[in-house]
Design goal:
Blueprint (H helix, E strand, L loop, with lengths): L11 H5 L8 E2 L10 E6 L4 E6 L5 E5 L6 H29 L15
Antiparallel strand pairs: 1-2, 2-3, 3-4
Subcellular location: Nucleus
GO molecular function: RNA polymerase II complex binding; zinc ion binding
GO cellular component, one term: transcription elongation factor complex
């Protein structure tokens, strides 16, 4: 029995298994500039910092050994949505409480 010859063609499955690199720059939620948001991860300190170089929006989060820049960007989107919803509910309560309350009828008024 002899050795098999190596095929010069790679199987299609091997090509599909290649890792696609994840994005490291993103679109800003506030100024909408493409590739203006960058994420820096300091694994030793356990902190990630996200910053837009155009409008200077910033976000900071804790990281672990599996955290990637896209994870921090997703957390930033979620935090911005939560802040917007909280602000909307605060506006509703302020608007409803700013109405004047009718004065109660006075007892023993001088009109009698």
């Amino acid at each position: 029995m002899g050795k098999r010859k190596k095929s010069s063609r790679k199987p299609a499955a091997a090509a599909a298994r290649r890792k696609q690199p994840l994005d490291t720059t993103f679109t800003c939620l506030f100024c909408h500039h493409d590739n203006s948001v960058t994420v820096r991860i300091d694994r030793k300190e356990g902190i990630a910092q996200l910053a837009c170089r155009i409008c200077d929006q910033r976000y900071q989060s804790k990281v672990n050994h599996l955290t990637e820049p896209i994870d921090i960007y997703s957390e930033w989107i979620d935090a911005a949505d939560a802040a917007q919803k909280e602000q909307e509910t605060a506006r509703r309560t302020v608007a409803s409480s700013s109405r004047r309350v009718p004065a109660p009828p006075s007892i023993g008024s001088d009109d009698e």
